[in-house]
Design brief:
The complex is a heterodimer. By secondary structure, chain A is mainly α. Chain A is built from ten helices and no strands. In chain A, helix 3 packs parallel to helix 7 and helix 6 crosses helix 10. Chain A starts with a helix and ends with a helix. Helix content of chain B is about 80%, strand content about 0%. Classes of the chains: A mainly alpha, B mainly alpha.
Chain lengths: ~220, ~250
């Protein structure tokens, strides 16, 4: 089972790195959204520091949804998804592998550039480690939720516009706990509570999310 | 007795049977709803004493609480019906889920509007981010809209039914998580604006009557919506043709 999972991850990573220009898009989107906020608000340092964490979380959330539309699309269009459904590997394992691969090429780079955005918003350096841990715990949940949305809309021609409508209301808890953890750290308090809750959400999403995505993918191929 | 009852329920899953029986039941739901809502409104607006803190403004509770209760009830009903339809492939269950969504969204909208109107005299603003119930109600409205948008996006009926059923089940798992995270978030940012008082008997009974009346009204609306949904889904069937020819 684990070998199958690793195989799926390896396959998707290979495909992803062959189209590496598509990988950069969500990352650039993340930085651009974060850049637009100071332009819309004001260059005032105190104000940017106040809103910075919130901006960072909303930008991360939006950019993680952006790249998800294509998660199952190319496989469904060229027919390999039907083979994956028919194969003896449980479909939820395949879906889990594909989502993990997607997270590795979209979530992890986003975490890596987040200190850059945090610096641009004058957020205290003491909160950076919490920010990175919180994003590392939050992005898998976002990817799993997004995978459900991608599976639900995979047979639609214009699925991308509806995907956000389906998934964004469900991301509220991730946003609340993530922003709270980084806020606490910025004020010099212990962020352990919200981080545990983020971890709980991630565990729930990783264990139940693939089942829902697999069910939706099967309906799409019926 | 028991066997006729179970037989009756099994037959209800067949569209023509359902259509005939729902035609008989629907007027009764409407009549009971009308009587209960009349009694509840009379009791709530005229008999109940004004609140010592909120004065007459509290009376909006008689339309706000039933709407909020029905908005949650309809989401659970929608998800349950969708799951039943998904698992046992019962066509009528999918029709129930699809018909519940717009009614549930309307009650959610009503709960939001009446909550905002109540908020004006209570908090001085129509919208208060600090109130967790309002914010979760808003998210619930988004969930209803997402479900309806997804169902409408599919051209094939059956695929749309089954896809949106998955979404409804995912949503119902998330609703408690969203609700409690919002409660936690709201209590961090400010204290509760109203202390929960025990409600006195003279104020309580009209509320309960109103809740019962609204529930029957919901049942009536659902039956009407479901009847037209069933007719639309069975448009090609012979019994539908007969029904449509019989009615002018």
């Amino acid at each position: 089972m684990l070998a199958d999972l690793l195989n799926v991850i390896r396959r998707d990573l290979t495909i992803a790195f062959r189209h590496w220009s598509e990988l950069v898009n969500p990352l650039v989107f993340f930085i651009i959204v974060a850049t637009l906020f100071p332009l819309a608000l004001s260059p005032d340092i105190a104000q940017l520091r106040d809103v910075g964490m919130g901006v960072l979380w909303v930008a991360a959330l939006l950019s993680s949804i952006l790249g998800l539309d294509g998660l199952f699309r190319s496989d469904t269009d060229d027919g390999s998804m039907e083979q994956l459904v028919l194969s003896p590997i449980p479909l939820s394992i395949t879906v889990l592998g594909k989502t993990i691969a997607h997270w590795l090429v979209s979530g992890v780079p986003l975490v890596a550039v987040s200190p850059l955005v945090a610096m641009a918003f004058y957020l205290p350096m003491a909160a950076w480690d919490t920010l990175i841990i919180a994003l590392l715990l939050a992005t898998p949940t976002l990817s799993m939720l997004g995978a459900i949305g991608a599976a639900l809309t995979v047979t639609l021609k214009r699925g991308g516009s509806i995907l956000g409508l389906l998934i964004l209301p469900l991301t509220g808890p991730v946003l609340i706990f993530g922003a709270r953890a980084t806020d606490l750290a910025a004020q010099g308090e212990s962020p352990a509570g919200p981080l545990y809750l983020l971890a709980a959400l991630a565990a729930l999403a990783v264990s139940l999310g693939p089942l829902a995505s697999a069910a939706a993918l099967r309906v799409g191929l019926e | 007795m028991w066997r006729t009852l179970t037989l009756f329920f099994h037959q209800l899953a067949s569209p023509p049977h359902f259509y005939r029986w729902s035609g008989l039941f629907a007027p009764w739901f409407a009549a009971v709803a009308l009587v209960l809502i009349t009694i509840g409104l009379y009791g709530g607006l005229l008999l109940a004493p004004p609140d010592y803190q909120q004065g007459e403004a509290f009376r909006i509770i008689y339309v706000h609480v039933p709407s909020a209760y029905l908005s949650m009830l309809s989401y659970v009903l929608m998800a349950t019906a969708a799951a039943v339809g998904f698992i046992w492939r019962i066509k009528l269950a999918h029709a129930v889920a699809v018909s519940t969504a717009p009614i549930g969204a309307s009650f959610t909208f009503l709960a939001l509007v009446t909550g905002a109107l109540w908020g004006k005299p209570m908090w001085g603003t129509y919208w208060q981010w600090g109130d967790a119930r309002l914010v979760s109600e808003l998210v619930l409205l988004f969930l209803f809209l997402g479900y309806m948008a997804l169902h409408a996006a599919f051209e094939e009926q059956e695929r749309g039914d089954r896809m949106s059923a998955v979404l409804a089940v995912v949503g119902v798992v998330n609703v408690p998580i969203i609700h409690y995270s919002v409660v936690w978030w709201a209590t961090l940012h400010q204290g509760p604006s109203i202390t929960e008082n025990a409600i006195s008997g003279a104020m309580l009974w009209p509320l309960l009557v109103m809740i019962a009346g609204y529930t029957f009204c919901f049942g009536w609306l659902l039956l009407l919506q479901l009847r037209s949904e069933v007719l639309e889904r069975e448009a090609g069937a012979r019994w539908t043709q007969r029904v449509l020819e019989a009615s002018p």
